[in-house]
Amino acid sequence: MGKHDAKQPKLHFEQKRSTRLGELEQGPQAAEGRDLTAEDHGEDLRTLMLEMRSSLRNIDTKLDNLTSQLDSVKAQVSTHETRLDTLEARQSECHEFQVETRDQLLHMDKLLGIIHAKNEDLEARSRRNNLQGFRRLPP
């Protein structure tokens, strides 16, 4: 059934209903020429039931589409959560490595300062020894 088939009974029902409502609004004189039988009411009820079933099918189809889209979004969120957890773990490892590297760099800087001080002391000692050697030489 196409979209036009589902709408056809609705239009038919709406036309009958509007005609009958108009007759009721005009009073009993307008409805005198027309006999409302149980068959007419039964047809109206069948038409209404068909319309309701068609509407329910449309709603079910739309809900199925929304459910599948929601499942897709859930899968994407799950993937992103996994990736985020991985990134957080890597960031934590990088932070730990950064702290260790900083500590090692500070330790090396301290050792370099000690080496510079020892080098300066050795150079000064060597100069003093050289000066003492020149003082002992005869002129």
UniProtKB/TrEMBL annotation:
Residues 1-40 are annotated as: Disordered. It comes from the Eukaryota. Keywords: Coiled coil. Residues 1-23 have a biased composition (Basic and acidic residues). Residues 56-90 form a coiled coil. Gene3D superfamilies: 1.20.5.340. This is Uncharacterized protein.
